[in-house]
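Narrative of accomplishments. A recurring question from our advisory board has been how the design workflow behaves on a single, concrete structure rather than in aggregate. To address it, we present the structure tokens for one chain from the evaluation set, followed by the sequence designed for it. No filtering or post-editing was applied between the two.
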């Protein structure tokens, strides 16, 4: 099933779109299976879970953090991940930059946008985004590379389109302000919404369930 699902999704995704295989609660065996099929990027939500898998799989693939980064996990995170997709506070920026300096690493980061102004979700609010970017753009060991959004939970995938469209607009607005060659990634869309996300300009999608099937409870 994993093989069929993965090959099907690869055919549906344009060559310029990066597929991040969302591997939360998935076994090392499942991850190694998708790697054998051609997966190049694994996305993890939690540093502790990622560490266990990374110790086995190591750098066969790139590793993206796609869940909220707790400040007390930054030191470990910079050693594991090749990109942090969930930058959401100035305090986190200072900590990441400090720990990256210690290991002489330049970390690509995406700013997470709370596009629907949801109280229980992390992310920078759209109204604060320009100020946030201006405050964090010049840290020497972080490479500010684009935006990521989760978007709200919707019953009908089509209902998320306006949120993705608005995030793409914010992405372009910041691109014009920064005028930076590093500002290239827009991470939107998961298993139910990745096709819409790509139509609205995403070039990173994060897919788990559509590859592995539903998680066992």
């Amino acid at each position: 099933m994993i093989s069929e699902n993965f090959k099907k999704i690869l055919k549906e995704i344009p060559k310029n779109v990066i597929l991040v295989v969302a591997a939360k609660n998935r076994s090392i065996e499942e991850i190694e299976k998708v790697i054998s099929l051609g997966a190049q990027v694994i996305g993890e939500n939690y540093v502790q879970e990622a560490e266990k898998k990374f110790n086995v799989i190591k750098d066969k693939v790139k590793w993206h953090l796609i869940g909220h980064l707790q400040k007390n996990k930054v030191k470990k995170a910079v050693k594991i991940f090749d990109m942090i997709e969930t930058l959401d506070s100035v305090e986190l920026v200072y900590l990441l930059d400090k720990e990256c300096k210690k290991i002489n690493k330049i970390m690509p980061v995406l700013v997470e946008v709370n596009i629907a102004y949801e109280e229980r979700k992390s992310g920078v609010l759209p109204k604060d985004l320009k100020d946030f970017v201006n405050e964090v753009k010049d840290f020497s060991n972080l490479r500010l590379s684009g935006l990521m959004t989760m978007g709200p939970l919707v019953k009908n995938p089509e209902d998320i389109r306006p949120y993705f469209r608005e995030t793409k607009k914010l992405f372009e607005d910041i691109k014009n302000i920064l005028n930076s060659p590093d500002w290239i990634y827009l991470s939107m869309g998961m298993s139910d919404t990745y096709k819409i996300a790509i139509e609205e300009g995403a070039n990173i999608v994060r897919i788990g369930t559509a590859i592995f099937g539903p998680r066992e409870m």
